[in-house]
Amino acid sequence: MYGIDFHADDYAASMENAGRILSLAQAGRIDSFSVITNMSCYEDCMEQLRRNWVHMPRKPRLSVHINLIDGFWLSSGESRQIIRNSWVGLLAAGLIPGSKREKLRGRLSAEIEAQLRAFLEQTKDLSTEEGAPLPLRIDGHVHTHMIPIVFSALMDALDRMALRERVQFIRCSAEPLWMFFSTPGVTGTISPVNLTKNLILRALSHSVRGKLRKAHIDTGYIFGLALTGEMDLKRVRLLLPKMKAYARRKNAYLEILTHPGRCLPGEISEEYGSDDRIAFLAPGRDIEYQMLEKVPEEES
Fold first, then answer.
1. How far is CA 49 from the centre of its chain?
2. 21 contacts: CB under 8 Å, gap ≥ 6
3. Confidence band, pLDDT 50/70/90 cuts, at residue 56
4. Phi, psi (5° rounding) for residue 280?
5. Which of 73, 80, 118, 211 could disulfide-pair with 37, CB 3.0 to 4.6 Å?
6. What's the rounded Cα separation, in Å, for the pair 203 and 101?
7. So where are the chain's domains?
8. Closest to 197 measured CA to CA, from 182, 212, 219, 175
9. CATH (one of 3.20.20.370, 3.40.50.2300, 1.20.1440.20, 3.40.30.10) for 3-299
10. Is 54 helix (H, G, I), strand (E, B) or coil?
11. Residue 300's pLDDT is what?
């Protein structure tokens, strides 16, 4: 299933964020983007998307961007509780055996179901270029869906909602690493944090890939972990031919994962976790936006 997908994460993190991603979609610079459903601006961002859908030169693929790090617990009803999880905390909590683990799995599954329902409700009137309903695609904010207990909770939610057959694609956050060390101009430029992220997710990807294969759900590889927040034009141009060749050899789908949707400082509020209060304002998002203005056109 070889294919290349220029993808933007985090639509609906804020109105400014959404507008930037929509502008790339309207210019034909991205093939897909993922949608956060549990921020306070979600419904306004989706109204903006529906209003602009007809103007897209080609209809982008949409994914649910499951968010268990910040935003609101949609499963808590009207209480408007804010999520305060961390990636490491979810990983560690999922390793505790017994009733506490099962209780957490149940709560995560209920929240994932609520976020899936919010996405399906807001996209039910959107269709592909062929007029078909949008396929269901799923990934996770900061790749939390790769954590074993979260992945199990996701599959629980899909089974409870009888949605497994409708799911077209779930991201497996695995990125080939060797080319970052063998490409002049890239070697030595990868941050230790992003390198560690790549290695951890690669270790988790073996189990996830096997479970997706057993469930007959498509997945692929990604390009954008080791350069998270740093997908600049120069290094993407150097690495993309190698990434494409790797995906072609594997007969695999390749997501070129970017985060071009920067927020305005005034949009940051308590619903953003401590890391996202920095990440959504990072100047690297401008760099990735500028890369997307150039590279997809060069590849077409």
1. 17
2. 8, 10, 11, 30, 33, 260, 261
3. confident
4. -75, -10
5. 118
6. 22
7. 3-299
8. 175
9. 3.20.20.370
10. helix
11. 63
Mean pLDDT of the 44-49 span: 98
Write out pLDDT tens, residues 146-173.
999 999 999 999 999 999 999 999 999 9
pTM over 0.90? The answer is yes
List, in order, residues 6 or more apart from 83 with CB less than 8 Å away. 38, 67, 68, 69, 70, 71, 72, 73, 111, 273
Encode pLDDT of 241-274 as tens digits: 999 999 999 999 999 999 999 999 999 999 999 9
Q: Which of 15, 12, 7, 17 is nearest to 285 (CA)?
A: 17
Cβ–Cβ under 8 Å, residues 138 and 36 = no
Q: What is the mean pLDDT of residues 13-32?
A: 96
243 HSE (CA, 13 A, CB side)? 27
